[in-house]
Amino acid sequence: MVATVLQTGGFVLGLIGMAGVFAATVEDKWCDKDRQGDMVICVYTYRGLWWNCEVPTTGFTECQSLSDLQGFSGLFKAVRALMIVAIEISVIAVLIGLFSLRCLKMRSMVKSTKTKMTLSSGIIFFIAGICSISGASVYANQIEASFMMTTYNQNQGKLGVKCQCVDGLGFSMIRYIFGPILFIAWVGGALLLLEGILMCIAVKGIQNNNNMGQGHVYEAPAQCREDDEECHLKRMDGEQKC
Q1: Residue 21's domain spans which residues?
Q2: Would you state the pLDDT for residue 4?
Q3: Are 30 and 181 in contact (CB under 8 A)?
Q4: Angle at 190 between CA 186 and CA 196, to 5 degrees
Q5: How do residues 43-70 score in pLDDT, each as one tens digit?
Q6: pLDDT band per the 50, 70, 90 thresholds, residue 232
Q7: What is the CATH number of the domain that holds 179?
């Protein structure tokens, strides 16, 4: 019973985590413009993995595609790749985990096969969670580095020295802070990690239940009756009737 609860609960968490990672990948607010200290805010800027958007005073959002990867470093490409891989393998893990649920009865599938599928689903979910958390962490590290670099250059600009700084993700003189989607990517990855752990724990309980459910059938040695033995001998001697 406990193994079934862990397996089903972990599967539900995996679905939620996969949805969170997918939403984080396609949404744009991975980072927002730092508006602290701005006297007049004319343009609100935010960025994601695919678009760079601005909201002027008119209220109409204008977005520029980030499809050209030549202007970005390998870190930005790695973040995209990690999030896409997290989505793809989490979909595979969901399909495997669905058919491995104990509440889903399948006549042609033995219990040992479901146990192996449960373990495989848990491991794949765990890997997907690592990919999502790693991608979000790399992006957050670049935001922090750009924030510190931009702050330093702005302070130098007050002394008469102006410097244009662009980091690996393409951040320039605008200071950016963590956006809400970045936290969704972290939470989604954490749920995938938790789902993988619960699936692996459930495997132990499923194996114990399978071992308890398997009984040994005792087969008594066949005993030959006297008349059967005599009939067998007569047949060997060529008799047609017993």
Answers
A1: 2-236
A2: 80
A3: yes
A4: 150
A5: 778 888 888 888 877 767 888 887 765 5
A6: low
A7: 1.20.140.150
CA angle (44 as vertex; 43, 49 as ends), nearest 5: 130
**Inside any domain, residue 151:** yes
Indicate whether 241 belongs to any domain.
Answer: no
Eight-class DSSP state of 71: G
Higher pLDDT residue, 132 or 224? 132
208: which 2 tokens?
């114990």
Q: How many residues in the chain? A: 242
3-state secondary structure of 81: helix
> Has residue 122 got a pLDDT over 50?
yes
Q: Are strands 176-178 and 31-33 parallel, antiparallel or unpaired?
A: antiparallel
Distances (CA, A) of 60 to 51, 54, 180, 200: 15, 8, 21, 49
Output 104 or 215, whichever has higher pLDDT. 104
Does residue 242 sit within a domain?
Answer: no
Question: Number of structural domains, the chain?
Answer: 1
Place of tokens 């699936």: 199
CB 3 within 8 A of CB 206: yes
CA distances from 210 to 87, 103, 108, 206, 207 (A): 33, 15, 16, 6, 5
Query: What are the φ and ψ backbone dihedral angles of 159, each rounded to 5 degrees?
Result: -95, 5
Does residue 176 lie within any of the structural domains? yes
